[in-house]
Design a protein that fits this description.
single chain; five-stranded antiparallel sheet; elongated; 8 strands; 32% strand; Immunoglobulin-like; alpha+beta
Length: 142
């Protein structure tokens, strides 16, 4: 009974072929992954640069709402941070505010903050992926 197997040369060629195939799959996957990360980071950095053109003012903070006036570029949304009685809460309003226009946002009705003492208005850019422009925030004592 004589056992026969493949030659060492053929075995080496098969192993090298498998290694090349695995390396190609890993390379293509890694390339796609880095391109996706670069694209997302590019969008975020573009939004960060755009934050320098955002300018808001709070013109009124009475009757349970703050009136925000946009004095800069288009704002895609507003983040309200409500503080009082040792607790805080926040919410995102996805209402656009065009240049030169005003919009009101309610700050009452947060169950965690019964007595509102301070409202922080933070403009946000980007639809779906909101990027807060924290450097442009406005604090209002109620």
């Amino acid at each position: 009974m004589q056992k026969r197997g493949i030659s060492p040369l053929l075995a080496s060629v098969i192993v090298i072929g498998i290694v090349i195939a695995v390396a190609a799959v890993v390379f293509l996957w890694g390339k796609q992954l880095t391109e996706n990360i670069a694209e997302k980071e590019g969008e975020i950095s573009t939004l960060e640069l755009s934050c320098s053109n955002v300018k808001i003012d709070v013109t009124d903070a009475s009757q349970g709402s703050v009136k925000v006036q946009n004095n800069g570029q288009l704002i895609d949304g507003v983040i309200l941070v409500v503080k009082g009685s040792g607790s805080s809460a926040n919410t995102i309003f996805d209402d656009e505010i065009e240049e030169g226009s005003e919009r009101s946002f309610p700050y009452l009705g947060f169950p965690d903050v019964p007595d509102v003492e301070k409202v922080t208005v933070i403009p946000a850019l980007g639809k779906g992926i909101y990027r807060p422009c924290s450097g442009q925030k406005v604090d209002v004592n109620i």
